[in-house]
Amino acid sequence: MGIHVRFRRLDVAAPDQRAYWRDYWRFLVQSLDHYQDDFSPRSIEVWQGPPGEMFGGKLARKIRFTSTAWDALQSPPKDVAQVVLRVNGEWRIGKTEFPGFFAANVEREWRSTYGDIEIDGYYAGPTGDDLTDAIWEANAADHFVSGYISRMKDFEGELHELRKIYFTPSPAIDHRLDLARAIYSRDVNEFFWSTIRSLRETEAWEQHKLEEKTAPYLDQFLIASIKKFKVTEDKLTGAMQRYGITTVAGSVVYVGQNANSFAQVYKELSESIIIPALKALPAKDDLQDRISKAITKQQTVQG
Q: Which of 45, 110, 161, 292 is the least buried, fewest Cβ under 10 Å from its Cβ?
């Protein structure tokens, strides 16, 4: 996988389909413009449903990429809610060239897995096979990651605003923080959100019965309670420095120096802070018992 972008939909009672589509189209325009020296577009595909017949999709249209053909797509295709729009072409990163694509995933099921916008490539390198592997092997994160985030972070659509960007070989961008290579988010707590979401997919979550312990609490409360302590911030800052994750001043941007930087920070943060804190929570039954005893005591006092 590669670059996965999530939007936040604005609260509009009856969204205009043309405006809805234009947000996706404009984001792709700006993304293609940023990478214009690195990516050569060759063709445009409009899919009804997932982008591939093996996934149940239907190729509605395929044409050669020209500025005229691309500009014509400012108008939404038929049945726009079912559309995946792809621009196929060739990447050039370092000394390597390989095929890739830019995609607007309007179709709901595909979007839920791969994000609103998906940018990737079919790379055959010594340590990996996707766009992020090519970027980190070429030590090209300044332009391909930091430069792109700087260009796109203030994007505001008519019906959408940018929520987050993950550079990761894993398509499930709401999980597997240990696989991330770089993160941008408008939520200052994204690193903690993603750590807890990632933990829920591990054996440690079941082993320590953390679902039972965290069930009575909102994640927002848990994160705020854990983060407020200086030891948490010190641990996170120290781990980022040790494992080569840099931050960008004024933004919630984390960029890993190495492909496994996030995996190392995730392991240290979860094992030394998050898991011990969650293990200390009273179980749901214990919490209910405390409530019951408090109510019974109050009834006794009043009686």
A: 292
Tokens 């009834």 appear where?
299
Could you give the CA distance from residue 179 to residue 202 in angstroms, rounded to a whole number? Answer: 13
**The token pair that represents 132 in the structure block:** 């992020």
Delimit the domains of the chain by residue range: 3-173, 190-288
Check residue 50 and give its pLDDT. Answer: 93
> What value, to the nearest 5°, has the Cα angle with vertex 117 and ends 111 and 118?
90
- Whether residue 32 is predicted with pLDDT greater than 70 in this model: the reply is yes
Full-model pTM? 0.86
**pLDDT for 235-286, tens place per residue?**
888 998 999 888 765 567 888 888 889 999 999 999 999 999 999 998 777 7
Average pLDDT across the chain, whole number: 89
